[in-house]
Design a protein that fits this description.
It contains eight helices and 74 strands. Helix 2 crosses helix 5, helix 3 packs across helix 4 and helix 4 crosses helix 5. It is mainly β. The strands form 17 sheets. Strands 1, 2, 3, 4, 5, 6, 7 and 8 form an eight-stranded antiparallel β-sheet that branches. A five-stranded antiparallel β-sheet has the order 33-11-36-35-34, with no helix packed on it. It is elongated and about 120 Å long. A hairpin with a 3-residue loop joins strand 25 and strand 26.
Length: 1105
């Protein structure tokens, strides 16, 4: 804290100003006094005005005013029966409608406000309204005083800590208009600054702090153990992680007890599960599940997952779902991760020693401590990527080359990642790849110092949390402190904790835990921090085996404000969850976004509010201001912080589920109704036609066909036609084993095994009757979509070639059919075998080979996706950060055909035909959260970001808009139609997005005008450097910038707020959960978009009329 270092005297500060005109009076909740000032029903009149405050009477005035305020305040703080619980905010109570009243010799004081009392000590946001209030010693007051204080009612007498401010008209013994600005830090410790009659009068020495803190112990005895029950008797053993749910329950990663614990609002401690090994950090995802990092869960050779999701509520409480496998190999005959740590999708990936985590929606950022140390990102489908490599050899050096392993991390508002390091500093990895030290100095020795940038010193900074605006709170473990770092300036200050061997801040020897004011409190190894909606901090104190609460008390100015909200852009007809960040939002009453947009507040807090936003189908498109109203006033966002309504692009579009039950149980049925089938992991998909969809399942090691009755007939006809060629004696037996209906039909038709040489009509009739037999067996109503085996052997990994139903694969992740070859050639990214498998064409012999599987040369990594273009196959290689090119003429591979800058290329797609700019390859890059366009420029791959070359900035999550301004969650796959429209499966936003020409044509003025409107509406969210470049590009009509922004990104189906779910129906109401692949098929004048809804383990279809 920024206290005067001379003697750090603490207490009441009173500033009195003689004003030229009468000060305005602020009433809580907009309520006027029941009687006007000067006539409150108790009779009497004006008692006259005394002398103004001077140097001679300042002491007497301070004493009289302090006693009067304390007496008036006492009734409002001491009587818990005055407060009624608020329905929307558990643990928060409000003074009832009759309000607390304290009478004086004449007049009265009315108290109104909130009490935050889930955990001791209670914090109060209190308002005192003085109505001709006169004390026995002749001091009379009119006006309002606001308080933000904690009350230590265990002290004798009770003590208060915090701030007060207000405006008063003083009469009686003294006279004049005064303002009050005070810091309350206990009894008998006060310094006053008085301004009266134009003279500044100061008694004592004091510099008013920007905030005060009060520390208390929530749970734990201080002794290591595992004991549930009342908080004061409960025991923990090295708690390292802490998180809060929406209702205020506290969850603790009890590391050495191998347990996850819960602290209820009444302080009772319960054990949720002991089915973990060494839980380190915890955080809730957007679906209310607790994500846990387990230090031993990812160790090499251990089956358990390094990250899990834990159910903490309801009947499923204690249920664990792994986010990724550990380092073990379920397929012992095949090498997976050859080292301790590998990127990729399970089971190729491995991540030992996960540390701190930061959960954004369903994606998880991880600070990996060792054996591949770095900042890692796990996508909703379990794909692991390295964001920043921080591996270093065993060394005592700490410098820019070896900055130390990360301990914990958190993401900022513009994609940057802040992290603590073992070299005693707080670092930041910017979205453009720049890494720098924000606070502290990379060094091996331990120190303490506040200051700006490298003037600050830390001693093993561990956990950290971001307040969503500009401050990081850091657990400075070895210093035993809670620190605050300003992300804009790099300034570090102490929030709570005494400092050994530092004058005025000493910690007496022999302490384990000491509660009280922030400067007085003692911490022993604070390990991690969580922050609630009210701005208070919760600390897991590992060495002391306790859980602490740090109440943060700021100036009680009640003026509301909003600094940020998400989503910032929605389409007509949208509905979703909105989060607002700001100040003084506790008493929020309403949020207005103009006609046609309805906002329903769900939960309020001092600096965070959640609400539901519904945009009417006829709401006028364009930017609009947000106006909030609280009990203390209103606030309207400036023009550069607007909410934008986009025109609906989804009219008439419907979403339906065509396959999958949602279960991951192995599907033991060889074929049957698609609605009854299960998927272990529905991955890459490709639409042969609107009636036939291929689904690669890397866990089941096979490719399945999801087909309508028409599509199933075509599949059976092709199989029988191939068998009739007589080129492979085992084909008919394989087909009959796979489909007993075909065998029965052939016998019924009298064909039996004599299929060779049969005519096309006979074969088609057999196919028709075979499908009819299946439909009659399962019921015609269940025969709309069928699930059929297509290639690979279920749960049998391998690299067997030959007839596709007899073949084996190892982690097939994607499949593509060559439209130019009438869908008779297929290409499969066989990730585990590090090769591209080809069906229907023998590259070595340069000859068609229907139904036969061939291997190509080994790739330089694990191929993830594949797309044909011209005479080449292009493959994404995530671990190589690029694309390879395989010649279909020679089989030669160019491993370095294209490199994605700092990115992880996953799904890719081309439009087919010649490799011109109009037929580019598009690449989904979830690490950079963007889409790349790869263009053939004279045989050289030219790579362009669809956002252009503007420095990265983030308007908000999942924002629709012009290409430069749109934001992506985790784009996983792309598909392109014949018009050049690009469809994207965005797993991070849980939606299907579309990139489409906005239709400005040659109207550059119209394009620039539209872009200026969008920029002006969101200017405050755009970095200064980016804003300058954007303005320059608009002013000069820069061709590249305008070409990029001719394209508009919109949400085709799914949520615009990024929330996961499952729902069919109109596109605006449909919900997805981590969609990872997208494919399209034309149906006459319309389109059908197929989606691998991986998180829901279903296949969905979007019908575009």
């Amino acid at each position: 804290m920024d206290w005067t270092r001379a003697n750090r005297v603490r207490a009441i500060v009173v500033v009195l100003s003689v004003l030229a005109s009468t000060a305005s009076v602020l009433w809580i909740a907009g309520c006027a006094p029941s009687a006007p000032p000067g006539d409150n029903g108790n009779g009497g009149g004006d008692i006259g005005s005394g002398d103004p405050v001077t140097a001679e009477n300042v002491g007497a005035f301070v004493d009289a005013l302090g006693q009067t305020l304390a007496a008036a305040r006492g009734g409002g703080l001491a009587d818990p029966t005055l407060f009624e619980a608020k329905r929307r905010e558990p643990g928060v109570a409000k003074i009832g409608p009759n309000r607390a009243e304290v009478g004086g010799v004449r007049g009265r004081v009315l108290a109104d406000g909130l009490r935050f009392g889930s955990f001791w000590p209670p914090r109060f946001e209190l308002t005192l309204n003085f109505e001709d209030y006169e004390t026995a010693d002749g001091l009379a007051l009119n006006g309002t005083v606001e308080y933000n204080v904690v009350r230590d009612d265990r002290a004798v007498p009770p003590q208060e800590y915090g701030f007060q401010s207000g405006a008063l008209t003083v009469s009686g013994r003294f006279g004049g208009e005064v303002t009050v600005q005070s810091a309350i830090v206990g009894a008998e410790r006060s310094t006053s600054v008085i301004t009266g009659a134009g003279t500044v009068l100061q008694v004592g020495a004091f510099e008013r702090p920007g905030f005060l803190t009060y520390v208390s112990t929530i749970a734990g005895t201080g002794e290591a153990g595992l004991r549930d029950g009342a908080a004061a008797q409960a025991q923990f053993n090295y708690p390292t992680g802490i998180a809060l749910d929406d209702d205020g329950h506290i969850y603790v990663a009890d590391n050495r007890n191998a347990a996850i614990r819960e602290i209820d609002l009444d302080g009772t401690v319960n054990t949720v599960t002991t089915n973990v090994q060494e839980p380190y950090d915890i955080q809730f995802d957007s679906k209310g599940k607790l994500v846990v990092s387990d230090q031993l869960g990812g160790s090499h050779g251990v089956d358990e997952s390094p990250l899990i999701r834990l159910e903490v509520r309801g009947d499923a409480r204690g249920t664990i779902t792994p986010l990724m496998l550990g380092g073990s190999n379920p397929f012992s005959d095949f090498p997976l991760c050859p080292t301790y740590s590998c990127d990729g999708r399970p089971p190729l990936s491995a991540m030992p020693w996960p540390g701190g985590i930061d959960v954004r929606n369903q994606s998880v950022l991880v600070a990996q401590w060792a054996l591949g140390a770095g900042l890692k990102l796990i996508l909703p489908d379990g794909y692991l990527m390295t964001v920043l490599d921080l591996e270093q050899p065993a060394t005592t050096v700490c410098d820019e080359t070896y900055p130390g392993s990360p301990n914990d991390l958190v993401q900022g508002n513009n994609g940057e990642i802040y992290y603590t390091t073992g070299c005693h500093a707080v670092r930041v990895s910017e979205s453009d790849g720049t890494v720098r030290t924000l606070a502290g100095r990379l060094q091996v020795h331990l120190e303490f110092a506040d200051g700006v940038g490298d003037a600050a010193r830390f001693s093993y900074p561990e956990g950290l949390v971001f307040d969503g605006e500009r401050y990081l709170f850091v657990a400075d473990a070895s210093n035993g402190l809670i620190r605050r770092v300003d992300v804009e300036t790099g300034e570090t200050i102490r929030v709570a904790g005494c400092v050994p061997h530092t004058e005025g801040l000493e910690c007496p020897e022999g302490l384990i835990v000491r509660d009280g004011p922030g400067d007085h409190a003692y911490f022993d190894g604070p390990q991690n921090i969580a922050i609630d909606n009210w701005g208070d901090l919760y600390v897991a104190e590992a060495r002391a085996n306790v859980i602490r609460l740090v109440r943060i008390l700021a100036d009680p100015d009640r003026t509301p404000s909003v600094h940020r909200f998400d989503p910032a852009v929605m389409q007509q007809g949208d509905s979703g969850a909105m989060t607002m960040s700001g100040r003084n939002l506790t008493t929020l009453q309403s949020v207005e976004l103009g006609e046609g947009v309805t906002v329903t507040v769900a939960r309020t807090g001092y600096q965070k509010v959640t609400a539901t936003v519904t945009v009417a189908a006829d709401a006028a498109p364009g930017p609009r201001a947000m106006t909030i109203t609280t009990a203390f006033g209103a606030f309207t966002t400036p023009e550069d912080l607007s909410f934008t309504v986009l025109a609906d692009t989804r009219g008439g579009i419907q979403v339906e589920t065509i396959a999958g039950t949602g279960s991951a149980e192995p599907d033991r049925l060889n074929y049957g109704p698609a609605g009854n089938t299960t998927f272990a992991f529905p991955g890459g998909i490709h639409a042969i036609s609107e009636d036939r969809l291929l689904v690669a399942d890397p866990v089941e090691q096979r490719i399945r066909l999801i087909a309508t009755r028409t599509g199933a007939v075509e599949e059976f006809f092709q199989l029988l036609t191939y068998a009739a060629l007589g080129t492979d004696a085992d084909v008919l037996g394989t087909i009959s084993n796979a489909f007993d209906a075909i065998e029965q039909t052939l016998d019924f038709l009298g064909i039996g095994t004599g299929i060779v040489g049969q005519t096309e009509d006979v074969l088609r009739d057999a196919a028709e009757q075979s499908v009819d037999s299946i439909c009659n067996t399962i019921g015609v109503e269940d025969c709309t979509w069928l699930s059929l085996p297509w290639a690979g052997s279920p749960y049998v990994p391998g690299e067997n070639n030959g007839f596709r139903l007899n073949s084996t694969f190892f982690l097939p992740t994607d499949i593509w059919a060559d439209a130019e070859a009438s869908n008779s050639k297929f290409y499969i990214a066989d990730s585990g075998n590090s090769t591209i498998r080809v069906i229907g064409y023998d590259i070595e012999q340069q000859a068609d080979a229907p139904m036969q599987v061939f291997s190509t040369d080994e790739q330089s990594g694990h191929p993830f996706a594949v797309t044909p273009l011209g005479t080449s196959l292009y493959t994404s290689l995530p671990t190589a950060l690029g694309l390879s090119q395989l010649s279909m003429n020679s089989g030669a591979i160019n491993f370095d055909w294209a490199t994605i800058p700092r990115g992880v290329p996953l799904g890719i797609a081309s439009g087919g035909g010649d490799f011109s700019e109009e037929q580019s390859i598009y690449v989904a890059d979830p690490l950079n959260a963007t889409i790349w366009r790869v263009i053939n420029n004279g045989g050289v791959a030219e790579i362009k970001n669809i956002r252009g070359d503007i420095p990265a900035f983030v308007i908000g999550k999942c924002v629709d808009g012009p290409a430069t301004f749109a934001t992506w969650g985790a784009p996983m796959d792309v598909a392109i139609d014949q018009t050049g429209t690009v469809y994207v499966a965005d797993a991070g936003c849980n939606s299907i997005r579309v990139i489409k020409d906005a239709g400005f044509g040659q109207d550059l003025d119209g394009l620039v005008g539209s872009l200026r409107e969008f920029v002006n509406a969101h200017q405050s969210r755009i970095s200064a450097v980016a804003a300058q470049q954007i303005e320059e590009n608009l002013r000069l009509f820069n061709t590249d910038f305008l070409d990029a922004n001719r394209f508009m990104v919109t949400t085709l189906a799914g949520s615009t707020d990024g929330q996961a779910g499952f729902a069919d129906g109109p596109a605006a109401l449909a919900r997805f959960n981590a969609p990872t692949s997208v494919a399209l098929a034309r149906t006459g004048d319309g389109k059908e978009i197929f989606v691998a809804d991986t998180g829901n383990r279903r296949i969905r279809r979007i019908v575009i009329p």
